[in-house]
Design brief:
It is built from four helices and five strands. By secondary structure, it is of the alpha+beta class. It folds into two domains: 37 residues; 93 residues.
Amino acid sequence: MTKAMRISLKAGEKIYLNGAVFCADRKVTLELLNDAVFLLEGHVMQVENTTTPLRQLYFIVQSVLMYPSSADEARRLASGHLTAVMRAYSNQEMLVQLEQVKSALAEDRCFDALRQLRQLFPLEDSIIEGNALQQCEVA
């Protein structure tokens, strides 16, 4: 038996639940009594924020959760993008954590993959800023 999960939403907050979008008109607490695929609005990345390779990967992985009808295609796209990202970075810490993302995706643990990716954003930003600084110094 699955343990019930309680989710609190503020007025106007959205939740993406099994491919449907719900918007709370007032503060509400939902109790999910069975397994459900959901994503809270605060963790949804908008397309205009997909400015780096990891943020693009995050967007693809969130699509698996938000659009169940095209989840298989999004999984394939995520796998290919992850492979390209892993080739692009040489930072050892980044590569170790991307291996964890790869494992999570292989086990269909998209929430874990998204959490891991969010934690990697600051490292990616510092790598990109460092590369930009190095390019400026060389030029």
